[in-house]
């Protein structure tokens, strides 16, 4: 693993006396154990020798790359106004601070950025150009971007990793790829036709979980076991909690699970944000049963300090007392310090594999992310990467590197430049990168506030009646029926709405699942025209799908444009109101019939595949 040290620029190892991470090699899959370092990749270090005539590598000639430069107009890091980190900040202040209207200052103007064909630098960690980025490279990732992210991770994002030497990173093609490689590394596929049940491995997941992750696990034949969740996320103790599931494991199903897959911030779909205290409790259980924690965190940066306070204000309840979650060393940025720390920061054993991605902070089409874990696990992931993706696309890596690091010119070169050139793009740097994600948090927080406010107002079906039919009656009886409920999301991009079908007039006439299905169709019809994700999609087991899944819908406030949030939220609330006035089963049949007319509308033909039906 000494390999990593040569590529490391910046970043300080923790200074306190720390223990080596534990050895988890007994969990490596058979193929992972058998992997050898790629002899091809081993050659790359020799390519760097100045003046070497390289007849060894099967590399295409860089002059024949058809791109002379990559150029882009890019945002300034302060384009979006950030929201306060303080949960006690007043609502008005929040609304004002998070306004997405562009200020009449030049912070919203784009700036021009160029990745040159060939840069002069001989240092691979600072040389950002197409000659290197579009060539074959090392599996850790493009050296300049790798070194930036390593420094970001070790010094700022995860400054309190307790084990000796701290964590290492490897770049991925996003978290989907990161998870797939982690599974490949740490689990053996199991086939019921060929393999003994005693060899079947397993994974624990949240009681509602991200479908794509489940889709990666299931074909490997692992047992998928849900763990109970509450508003925060995974529960450590009590019925269905981590301890309960692991202590009472039924070995006739296979081995006790040694993996946990969890999304701890802005959980998809429930939006939970797992507190530091809960992390410590869960970590203790994972240590006791030797479980590896795979923490998938695309929404990490979207933690909303205003949510609990605004929810309490909207509902006339007492705002909760904010809980401090600092762990020691500061990240150097008040915004990052204000976020709940990752499991990595309580990871004394080295049992946490954390997945980060640019998908939600830059763009999903980037297909770049990184894994953070103890060095031995990263080394095995490196071996898997060498013979699979090799590394993310050089186009994207160089664009990202240029964006955050800027042109890497020497002081002499810089002095030679004209004044205009000197004033041009110099890269976001670490401060700009942190400011960018802080601004994104602000923008999404405001969307969350809008949607939550509208949905809050529409939760009840209010009926006014007079107790006696006398026209001159001076008083009326108001009855309030709760049709749905939800928590204001503390993080992420979703509102997880629970429908109270037990209050619907047809509840005793038809199965609740039928009501849920009809309501989902009803949303998509005119005049409502909103598409939401049914909770069934996120159910890890058939039992949860049948018993619980139908009660929930997931609404994403991130993708639609600002005015659409208002329309869609009102449409959702209005559709539910109207649906609660339906009193005959024939009307439900008619809604189902309306869904059949989708067949005639080509643009809706794909709906059933989105729904997984
Ligand atoms: N993990 C979770 C929990 C997600 O919600 C998503 C995207 O929605 C992903 C992973 C996909 O991440 P990536 O685009 O980096 O593969």
Descriptive account of the structure:
The protein is an alpha/beta fold and 613 residues long. The chain folds into 2 domains: 2-38 and 84-411, Aspartate Aminotransferase, domain 2 (3-Layer(aba) Sandwich), CATH 3.40.640; 458-611, Aspartate Aminotransferase, domain 1. The protein has helices spanning 3-6, 30-34, 39-42, 44-47, 91-97, 130-133, 143-157, 175-186, 211-217, 242-247, 276-288, 306-315, 334-338, 375-386, 394-405, 411-416, 419-423, 429-457, 512-524, 542-547, 562-579, 585-596, 607-610, and strands at residues 70-74, 111-115, 168-172, 202-206, 223-227, 259-262, 292-296, 352-357, 369-373, 460-465, 477-482, 484-485, 494-499, 533-534, 552-556. Strand 6 (259-262), helix 11 (276-288) and strand 7 form a beta-alpha-beta unit. The longest helix has 29 residues, at 429-457. The chain is globular. Residues 1-15 and 607-613 have low confidence and may be disordered. The structure holds pyridoxal-5'-phosphate. Pfam families: Aminotran_1_2. Keywords: Aminotransferase, Pyridoxal phosphate, Transferase.
